Amino acid sequence: MISSNQLMTAPASLLDARGQPQFGKFSGQIAQCDWTGLSAPYQRSGPWRYFHHKRWQYVALATEELFCGIAIVDLGWINTAFAYAFDRKQGKEVGSFSQDGLPGLTANVGDRPAAGAASSFRFLANSIDYRHMAGTDVYRLQLRCGAFEIDAELDAGSAAPFLLALGPIAGGAAHATQKSSGMPMRGVVKASGKSYMLDSGVASFDYSNGFLARETSWRWASAHALDMGFNLQAGYFGTQENVLWLDGNLISLGQASFQFDASNPMSPWHIRTDDGLLDLHFQPEGFRRENKDLLIAASRYLQPVGSFNGWVKASHDAEPRLVRDLVGVTEDHFSRW
After folding, report:
1. b/e burial code for range 224-253 (CB count within 10 A of at least 16 → b)
2. What strands, in cross-sheet order, belong to the sheet with 321-336?
3. What pLDDT shows up at residue 295?
4. DSSP 294
């Protein structure tokens, strides 16, 4: 029997034989995010799918000294990418890149979220390339954006099971996300004339692919060590992607609440779940903010970098596990796309 917070094994495909999405929160990897054959009531016209299909690849690199966030986003009618490096000891951003691209030309987010993953962004002399190395458990990230450079390898060989979440979307159709647990990494980041070694740090990735509503918003929190990590979201995806990784186990979490002062990015956050398995306080050390207004589209994005303290539990009757200075991010995001 599967307990209330133990996850079933990921299905082989997003859709069943009747073209229905196999909604749920799963442990494991899916080979491909292929929505071909999606049937009613989730089926939509070709033009609707073009404008509502959203795909992104996000990678986080965290050490005691540095935090990096890197994203490639394909919105169909436009694409974009960003990357930043935040020096935690200096309390400031030391590397940054943000660029909107040309549809169908500058960005590619592949349909394989784990094994076989390949996503890239190229604009003039700037490039970001992320891919799984065939026949290995290694993912490679390379970034060349002026004097800001990243060469990193993420090793999933000993990582805890990945999360696969599939769910319906109000105002959209269906959505899927594949998120990794914490992975050891090696490599170097070069920014502001300094080299930051990654070998003692922890990496994670977030791949998402689905048909979202015209207006989409969320709050998000994510942090990872090798023995502990979590992913929490409140917004368009309900509780589908709320999970805890603890000692190699993937544990389902309930609804997450985020208490914070949106007008003060450096103010503390309080985040907890309604199942009593997680209660955390987050203290920002700095933040990345970007607001865009493209007339027919707009986005408001705030991602503080900082540390989490509090406790988590594997089950209701388990002893709380203390969380101390776990580096990660929170996010407050709205998009009209």
Report:
1. bbeebbbbbbbbbbebbbbbbbbeeebbbb
2. 249-252, 243-246, 228-235, 215-224, 321-336, 298-312, 278-293, 269-273, 256-259
3. 59
4. -
pLDDT at 301: 87
Reference 153, options 78, 216, 203, 94; nearest CA is 203
Greatest Cα pair distance, the chain, in angstroms, is: 56
Residue 114 has pLDDT above 50, yes or no: yes
What is the phi/psi pair of residue 256, to 5°? -105, 140
Q: What average pLDDT does this structure show over 223-229?
A: 98
pLDDT of 336 reads 85
β-bridge pairing 53-62 and 202-211: antiparallel
pTM over 0.90: yes
- Domains of the chain plus CATH, in order, are 54-336 (2.40.370.10)
Residue 148, number of CB atoms within 10 A of its CB: 20
Q: How confident is the prediction for the chain on average, in pLDDT? A: 95
Two tokens at 85? 């490096």
The β-bridge relationship of strands 278-293 and 24-27 is unpaired
